[in-house]
Design a protein that fits this description.
Number of strands: 0
Family: Belongs to the G-protein coupled receptor 1 family.
Structural class: mainly alpha
Subcellular location: Cell membrane
Radius of gyration: 23 Å
CATH topology: Rhopdopsin 7-helix transmembrane proteins
Keywords: Cell membrane, G-protein coupled receptor, Membrane, Receptor, Transducer, Transmembrane, Transmembrane helix
Strand content: under 5%
Number of helices: 9
GO molecular function: trace-amine receptor activity
Protein name: G-protein coupled receptors family 1 profile domain-containing protein
């Protein structure tokens, strides 16, 4: 919401549409050097986010050795992160707080901004559940968690995100003070629906994620102590190998979860603060970019902590995946 503009007190350079006078919204005027720097940084992050997540999508989709339930959940997260790279493009257009595209594109952008983060949060919840079962109930993991169930869970996650968030946006109510000027791209959500959304898409999933991962690391720590003290004697060497593998995956994905929460919480703290109406546009943009930056950081975590991902990147960049039978390569 922007206050009415006194056209006599505002220069043409401060208006999104100078020829519309009082009907136009104000734009944020920055020094040229600052604007250029912001455009370069955000464009670079957008390209990097799209490229890195595309590598993850290609790797998991192409190599059959990676067709595991956990990796299909990572694939869902990579797809949502890939879409965030395109959200960055729209945010770059909004750097001066002016929307120059059509209302249809504004609606597309608004829906994308709601569905994609919700699907991303849902994917993180599924990953937490997967790691919880793998570490806390390893004997029944392969019967409870299968590739088909992982695929169905991912499809259900995206379907529910789309269905819920399309119902969340209320296009029928447009108060007079809502669209106060031309050059805005905002979506009206009823305050009651907004607090319901806060509970269903932030408080509840974040609570589930934290509870499950606290349990995972408690069990992992107890098993590590048992192994070091030789209290637990494991007869099947194969089961020991699988257990260590699952624990390592839990640690890697634990880093993903912690980074996700660190990027997520500042955004919602700013949005739902009682004094949020007093928060500057710049502050809101910064916490939004931090939230979206998480999508660029996830593939970087894989690069440093997953040897198989580094090997996949070499296969892809060297175009070896175009060779016949490359999908059967033992990249693990």
């Amino acid at each position: 919401h922007q206050p009415p503009i006194n056209f006599l007190q505002v220069s043409f350079s401060e208006l999104c549409y100078p020829h519309l006078g009082n009907s136009s919204c104000r734009r944020i005027v920055r020094p040229h050097s600052v604007s250029v720097l912001l455009y370069i940084i955000l464009s670079s992050i957008s390209v990097l986010t799209v490229t890195l997540n595309l590598l993850v999508i290609i790797a998991i989709s192409h190599f059959k050795k990676l067709h595991s339930p956990t990796n299909f959940l990572l694939l869902s997260l990579a797809v949502s992160d890939f879409c965030v790279g395109f959200i960055f493009i729209f945010d770059i257009l909004l750097l001066d707080n002016c929307w120059y595209l059509s209302e249809g594109w504004c609606m597309f952008f608004s829906v994308l901004c709601i569905i994609v983060p919700t699907a991303s949060t849902g994917s993180i919840v599924l990953i937490s559940i997967d790691r919880y079962i793998a570490v806390c109930d390893p004997l029944h993991y392969h019967t409870k968690v299968t590739v088909n169930r992982a695929r169905m869970s991912v499809a259900l996650c995206w379907f529910c995100s789309a269905l819920y968030n399309l119902g969340l946006i209320d296009n029928t109510q447009k108060p007079d003070d809502f669209n106060s000027c031309i050059g805005q791209c905002v979506t009206y959500i009823h305050p009651a629906a907004l607090f319901l959304d806060l509970f269903l898409t932030v408080i509840l999933p974040v609570s589930v994620i934290i509870i499950l991962y606290v349990r995972v690391f408690v069990v992992a720590a107890s098993q590590a102590r048992a192994m070091h003290s030789h209290v637990a004697v494991v007869k099947l060497q194969g089961s020991v190998k699988v257990n260590k593998s699952e624990l390592k995956a839990a640690r890697v994905l634990g880093v993903v979860v912690v980074v996700f929460l660190c990027c997520l919480l500042p955004f919602y703290i700013v949005v739902f603060l009682p004094e949020s109406s007093d928060v500057s546009v710049s502050t809101f943009f910064y916490v939004t970019y931090l939230y979206y930056l998480n999508s660029c950081m996830n593939p970087m975590i894989y690069v440093f902590l997953y040897p198989w991902f580094r090997k996949c990147v070499k296969y892809i960049l060297s175009l070896q995946i175009l060779k016949s039978g490359s999908s059967e390569a033992n990249i693990l």
